[in-house]
Amino acid sequence: FKKLANTIMEDLKAISPETEVCLHFVEFQDPWDFEEVYAALHDFAQCYTFETETENYLVHITTGTHVAQICLYLLTETRYFPAKLIQTSPPPRKSSEPGEYRIIDLDLSKYDLLASRFKKEYEEGVSFLKSGIETKNTQFNTLIEKIERVAIYSKAPILLMGPTGAGKSQLAKKIYELKKARHQLDGPFIEVNCATLRGDSAMSTLFGHVKGAFTGALQDRSGLLRAANKGILFLDEIGELGLDEQAMLLRALEEKRFFPMGADREIESNFQLIAGTNRELLKEVQKGNFREDLLARINLWSFQLPGLRERQEDIEPNLQYELEKFALESGQHVTFNKEAKSKFLQFATSHEAIWSANFRDLNACVTRMATLAQGGRITVILVEEEIQILKQSWGGDLPKKSVLENILSKSQLEQVDLFDEMQLPGVIQVCQNSHSLADAGRKLFSKSRLKKKQPNDTDRLRKYLSRFGLEWKSL
User: Fold this and answer.
1) How far apart are CA 152 and CA 224, in angstroms?
2) Other CB atoms within 10 A of residue 2 CB
3) pLDDT for the residue 397
């Protein structure tokens, strides 16, 4: 290729004698080896001193192997070569006219049409992860936007944290479907709840076993990690895994290989992990229940999903989503009448609505009301009945004294007046349903605080709780 390079250099000098041509030889053995060619050109770009303030750079990719062309394009697009592309073409045959050239700037931000197209794809991706629900909660929307970008551009493990029923499983499936639609995955979505795995069954379910590995192992089993090859493995409640399983999982994540139970040969599986948990894994590490090195490995992208109580403005759009889902599953179109919907939303967004199982509670109550709705209309009577069912499921009918028995010691209970025995359980319930002490104070003193120039809700509530040796965090 040196001979060809010298010929081109002489041609350039003949056309433009004042043009200085400097040759740089880049050595590699196989011009079709992508890894070798990219590494060599990358090293050259890193070592070359570009004077971007005084010089303009053009990269010509017409000649060379396709591999070399692709590598030059990638290095230019990612700005390792701070250049524009030059595309040349010869004149038509039997023409005395000169050839043509075009300059192509790979800075996509300069192309409005492309930018609007990418923005549309991004918005469609975010909407897809939210199941098409037009949510209004700012915290949740910001969270989903980050998850969308990570899902598209990262293959690293993703950790979804949040209370039971917050939607971790559904979001994991949506991430898989989004990546599948972008042709980033060829394998399946494999889901398992780690809370259901115990002993040899846990090892066998996850990593597989060979025949005779333990009593009852009558034939080989491939295991879920192997089944998830080239796809996504969703381990819900990963904090429930035993330490031995955690150690094997860590190795499988780092090396993409593992030993099935009783096997003397390793199995390879290249999967992406999505983990879900309602536990605080850092505290579990401190207790010795979770491996610190595994947490470090899966904690690169961690997202805390808010519960339904923290997304009260999203209850109405999710209510509509649940009705649409019911219609698809049952073939029956059901709606609320105006008064019924108003009454339900008033309760659903009040401090009385605990939503302890989050979206599972919402799904269950919509299913009950929709199933019983005569003529496809949910009435006030159905809503009132459902409110009572929800309150009972959340322990609303427990005697007030039993609530205190779960919070106070026997000696403390003996010191509680009847007045406080009637009042304190309600205060405790509001505290348990609030984001912070200040939030609880605003709810409890919502009327009297309006009469004060400087409301001191937090201090008032803190002093009241301290009379019984209680703190908001402990509740």
Assistant:
1) 24
2) 8
3) 47
In DSSP terms, 273 is beta-bridged to 233
Per residue in 181-207, pLDDT tens? 888 899 999 999 998 887 768 888 898
Kindly state the tokens that stand for 90: 């010869």
- DSSP letter assigned to residue 306: P
Alpha-carbon dihedral 424, 430, 431, 437, rounded to 10 degrees: -110
In sequence order, which residues have a C-beta less than 8 Å from that of residue 175 and are 6 or more positions away? 129, 147, 151, 158, 232, 274
Successive 10-residue mean pLDDT values, the chain, 475 residues: 90 92 89 93 92 91 86 90 90 86 81 72 85 89 93 94 92 94 91 85 85 73 90 95 93 92 86 94 93 95 92 93 93 93 93 88 94 93 93 67 71 81 84 82 82 83 89 81
Report whether 322 contacts 363 (CB < 8 A). Answer: yes
The total number of residues written for the chain in this structure: 475
Q: Reduce the secondary structure of 86-120 to three states and give it as a string.
A: EEEECCCCCCCCCCEEEEECCCHHHCHHHHHHHHH
List, as one string, the DSSP characters of 262-289: T-SS-EE---EEEEEESS-HHHHHHHTS
DSSP state of 261: B
- Position 109 scores a pLDDT of 66
Q: What are phi and psi of 32, to 5 degrees?
A: -105, 0
Q: Tens digits of per-residue pLDDT, 428-475?
A: 888 887 778 888 888 888 878 777 777 788 888 999 999 888 887 888
pLDDT of residue 401: 54
Strand pairing class (100-104; 84-89): antiparallel
* Separation CA 62–CA 56 (nearest Å): 19
Instruction: Identify the CA nearest to 40 among candidates 52, 55, 24, 56.
Output: 24
CB contact at 8 A, 149 and 301: no
User: Is the CB of residue 392 less than 8 Å from the CB of residue 402?
Assistant: no
Strands (E), 33-95: 58-60, 84-89
Non-local CB neighbours of 459 within 8 Å, separated by 6+ positions? none
Q: By CB neighbour count within 10 A (0-12 exposed, 13-18 middle, 19+ buried), where does 245 fall?
A: buried
Which letter does DSSP use for residue 237 in this model? T
**CA geometry: angle 237, 238, 243, nearest 5 deg:** 135
Cβ atoms of residues 260 and 207 within 8 Å: yes
Instruction: Please give the pLDDT value at position 115.
Output: 66
Helix, strand, coil shares, percent, the chain, to 5: 55, 10, 35
CB-side neighbour CA atoms (13 Å) of 274: 26
Measured between its terminal Cα atoms, the distance across the chain in Å is 77
To which H or E segment does residue 243 belong?
Answer: helix 243-255
DSSP state, residue 209: B
